[in-house]
Each structure stands twice: as C-alpha cells, then as structure tokens.
Write a structure and sequence with these properties.
289 residues, 55% helix, Cyclin A, domain 1, two-stranded antiparallel ribbon
C-alpha cells in the first residue's frame, strides 16, 4: 500500500526542518578534501566484494555464446540510449552481471533482464526515474508492465536487495582526479572501460583493478615511459605486476576493435568531445602464430 501525504493537511510550522550546522567544513581546511576523498574511496572498497565474478550464464552456456549468432542485439541500440544510460550504466551493468551469475536465463528473456536492470538502476540513481511503461515501450512492447515488475522482484530477491556495488567508472573518477589526468588520458580510459563492458572475459577482474589497468594503459599509450607512481600504487592497491594480465587483455581488445562487428563504442569515442581517442590510438596487430 502506498501512503501519500498532502502538505496542506499537515500542520507544519515554517522552517521546521531548517538548521544551522555547528561546524561548516571548509574546502581550504588542512587536508579536508583529501581526507574526505580517502574516506569515500575506502567506502567504495568496503562496499565492493573484491572477488572476481564467475562468467554469467544463459540457457545453453556462457552469455557470450548466447549472443554469438547475433551480437548486434546489444550494439545496435547503443547510440539511441547513450545519453540516458550515461548516468546509470555502471549500476545497470553490475546488476546484469551479478544476476546472470546467479540465475540461468533463456535467450528470449535477456532483453527483459536488461530493461529491468535499467529500471532498477534508474530508481537507484535518479530522483525522478522513468515510468515502467517507458521501459516497455523501448522493447517495442515485447514485455508488459507486469512482466517487468515480476522480473524486478526476481532480480532484487536474487541479489538480496544489495545494490550498493561501486562500478569501475566510479573508481576511475577517483583515480583520474588524484593523478591529475588530461582529458585525453581520461577519455581513453573510459573508452577501454566501455569496450570491456561487452567482453565477458573481463568479468574475472575486480572493478577497482579494471579501472586502475585502464588508467595505467592509457597513460602509457599517451605519454610513454613508466607512468605508474608509488602514490598511485598506494591509492589503488595495484602494482604493475598486479595489473599486467588485465592490461594485456585490454591491449587485445584494442587490437580486435577494427575487426569487430560492434562499432558503436568506437564511433562514440571517435567524436571530438572525447578527443577522438578511438580514431587516434594505434596498437600493432597481433602477429599470427
């Protein structure tokens, strides 16, 4: 049952909720911002189960096999929903990965899982989330309002209502700010992270490690030399040896992009607002064995 309060029916006094803090934090107080940032990062790590995911499964095998016959199922809508998903994509992707890790899902229900994850993520991130009928509409009414509600209940029960899982993008924001990255390095890091979203093999790495490896590789590609400083190792908890496997997988992703059927992310990051990093980055192709 939903309760609704009418402000005119309640005898509220003016300014009843106003208050004056006894201490107003200053941006210029010694270490104020730095200490706050460290606390937030620590909360990220505490809220993140720092264990790798098992590969998500669909009916008949891994999720990658489920879409192998038509990989455009994910790719063809990327441009249309990019602006909206920008704010919720981290939560949305994490919800899908975690649910598919726990539950077997038929290929026919994959779109329902995706759109329901977007609904839950929008409720988590936004003050005024879209209505359920809007999510039904973007599936061309393939699923009714009741279908989406039932799937929402199943997903939340399977995840034990635990939605507070920081994404790799959240870690990247913190790392890039501490490192003082240029826009080009940050855009290239985001490009690597978005490429990794559709690679099931990247689920073996923790989000914090994925973000660190993306930033490390981007800095190396843009600046050369040895970019990883002791300060960044202390912040991320990742040394160069720790990131080696993840960074090599990202190099392989970049090498495969020109031959891939999934070009939406490459088009997105070839735009001037992202410093055209997808068009400018060059990594030698693998030599045939």
């Amino acid at each position: 049952m939903m309760l609704k309060c009418d402000k005119d029916s309640l005898p509220l006094k003016e300014n009843v909720c106003s208050f004056k803090p006894t201490h107003e934090p200053s941006r210029h107080s010694p270490g104020g911002d730095r200490a706050f940032g460290r606390n937030i990062t620590n909360l990220f790590f505490e809220g993140l189960p720092e264990t790798k995911h098992e590969l998500p499964h669909a009916e008949g095998g891994p999720i990658k096999a489920a879409i192998a016959s038509n990989p455009q199922l994910c790719e063809e809508y990327a441009d249309e929903i990019e602006a909206y998903l920008k704010t919720i994509e981290g939560v949305h992707q994490a919800l899908m990965d975690r649910y598919l890790e726990k539950e077997q899902v038929s290929k026919l229900s994959l779109q329902l899982v995706g759109v329901t994850a977007a609904l839950i993520a929008s409720k988590y991130e936004e003050i005024y989330p879209p209505e359920i009928k809007d999510f039904s509409y973007i599936t061309d009414n393939a699923y009714s309002r009741e279908d989406i509600i039932r799937m929402e209940q199943k997903m939340l029960a399977a995840l034990n209502f635990d939605l507070n899982i920081p994404s790799s993008n959240r870690f990247l924001e913190r790392y890039a700010r501490q490192m003082g990255c240029t826009k080009k390095i940050r855009s290239l890091s985001q490009y690597l992270l978005e490429l990794s979203l559709v690679e099931s093999g990247m689920l073996r790495y923790r989000p914090s490690l994925t973000a660190a490896a993306a930033l490390y590789l981007s800095t190396k590609l843009c600046c050369g030399g040895e970019p990883w400083k002791q300060r960044m190792e202390a912040l991320t908890g990742c040394g160069e040896r720790t990131m080696d496997g993840c960074a090599k997988d990202m190099v392989a992703m970049l090498q495969a992009v020109p031959r891939s059927q999934l070009q939406a992310v490459r088009r997105k990051f070839s735009a001037p607002k992202f410093e055209e990093v997808a068009a400018r980055v060059r990594i030698g192709a693998k030599k045939p064995a």
